[in-house]
Design goal:
400 residues; alpha/beta; Aspartate Aminotransferase, domain 1; Aspartate Aminotransferase, domain 2; 2 domains; seven-stranded mixed sheet; two-stranded parallel ribbon; 46% helix; binds (2S)-2-hydroxybutanedioic acid; pyridoxal phosphate; transferase
Length: 400
């Protein structure tokens, strides 16, 4: 039965962690997966999470199954965090929310829904994109295509290329948009460009599906980072789907907490869409885990914890900004002929360096510096004290 099974390739991101764990060098650095580390390169549990957990423990909750659609108070706070207190769609009860397993699980339910109800549609995904997007939509049985996004010459957005490719997509196609902090490039459209993308979706009948995995981590403001989906839904009156993750902004990686949301055109559609999402979730994992949803509810739903959370998020993104500056400086002093300013221009957790696969492999082998083969460095995994070491490794790899 199993004889014909071939070895699957390692995951482009989680495979890096596997290689890192096998390396016994004391110099090793894991700049692969986007997971926040402290200046001592230790994982961080936010204080607000610890406080929320204390409250949860004192509630003496049971371990019953959650409803297939998730924890009701969580579903309410998560939709509000995404769409805003003044959201027209929320006031008009045109929002569907299903608690799901962080970003990936939410995207997968959305993908399965598209495969069932929009069979034959093509899903347009930015080039480059997060290492799991093609797996998720492809495994759900959807056709996928790429649209231009990154301009290697300017290390910025190829906006004209993006508009040209999306304009040529057939009406009814789905477009995956990174809501903020584009992964892996750290390059986002400006508000003016977002407005044009929204208008293009409207004019060409393209369906926007946002992946919001870094709300609060891009600009440091939860509101600003949700500007694009809010604009599409409330200003432009578009129907959208949005996946959300609390892995990065609340550091709840292993708790697998997130949501799939849709803004639909009429309140009557809400129970119908939700019933289909529940149908898919039931057959996939039955119902979502409780603990993370309770934590999010305590933090987002409580004014005091909510403001503390914002401060802790600023500390995390502030540390990454400092690390960016230190790395840029270290590279400028070693290789002044090259323009390294992109490192502090890119936002979010990552730096997309343009390094080749061979250069990355050189860093893995000689320097024990692990990053993804596309040259993406997770700066959330770098400390100020290791910036010089990384710069040495990068310069050596580039000169070899
Ligand atoms: C990443 O891009 O490193 C993160 O989104 C983690 C993951 O699941 O790949």
């Amino acid at each position: 039965f199993f004889q014909e099974v071939e070895q699957a390739p390692p995951d482009p991101i989680l495979g890096v962690t596997e290689a890192f764990k096998k390396d016994s060098s004391p110099d090793k650095l894991n700049l692969g997966v986007g997971a926040y580390r402290t200046e001592n390169l230790e994982p961080l549990v936010l204080d607000v999470v610890k406080k929320a957990e204390e409250r949860i423990m004192s509630q003496n909750n049971n371990k019953e199954y959650l409803a297939v659609e998730g924890f009701a108070p969580f579903r309410e706070v998560t939709a509000r965090l995404l769409l805003g207190d003044d959201s027209k769609a929320l006031k008009e009860k045109r929002v569907v929310t299903l608690q799901s397993l962080s970003g990936t699980g939410s995207l997968r339910i959305g993908a399965a829904f598209l495969a069932k109800f929009r069979a034959g549609t093509t899903v347009y995904i930015s080039n480059p994109t997060w290492g799991n997007h093609f797996n998720i939509f492809g495994d759900a049985g959807l056709e996928t295509a790429k649209y231009r996004y990154f301009d290697a010459k300017t290390i910025g957005l190829d906006f004209d290329g993006m508009v040209e490719d999306l304009s040529a997509a057939p009406a009814g196609s789905v477009v995956i948009l990174h809501g903020c902090a584009h992964n892996p490039t750290g390059v986002d459209p400006t508000k003016e460009q977002w407005k044009k993308i929204a208008q293009l979706c409207k004019d060409k009948g393209l369906f926007p599906f946002f992946d919001v995995a870094y709300q609060g981590f891009a600009s440091g403001s939860l509101e600003e980072d949700a500007w694009a989906p809010r604009h599409f839904a409330d200003e432009m009156g578009l129907e959208i789907i949005v996946s959300q993750s609390y892995s990065k902004n609340l550091g709840l990686y292993g708790e697998r907490v997130g949501a799939l949301n849709a803004v639909v055109s009429s309140a009557d559609e809400v129970p119908k869409v939700l019933s289909q999402w529940k149908r898919i979730a039931r057959a996939t994992y039955s119902n979502p885990p409780t603990h993370g949803a309770r934590i999010v509810t305590e933090v987002v739903g409580d004014d005091a914890l909510f403001s503390e959370w914002k401060k802790e998020m600023e500390e995390m993104s502030g540390r990454i900004i400092n690390v960016r500056a230190a790395l840029q400086k270290a590279l400028e002093s070693r290789m002044p002929e090259k323009d390294w300013t992109f490192i502090t221009r890119q936002i979010g957790m990552f730096s997309y360096t343009g390094m080749t696969k061979e250069q990355v492999e050189h860093m893995w082998e000689k320097w024990h510096v692990y990053c993804t083969k596309d040259g993406r460095l997770s700066l959330a995994g770098l400390s100020l004290s290791r910036a010089d070491y990384l710069a040495d490794a990068m310069v050596d790899a580039i000169n070899t």
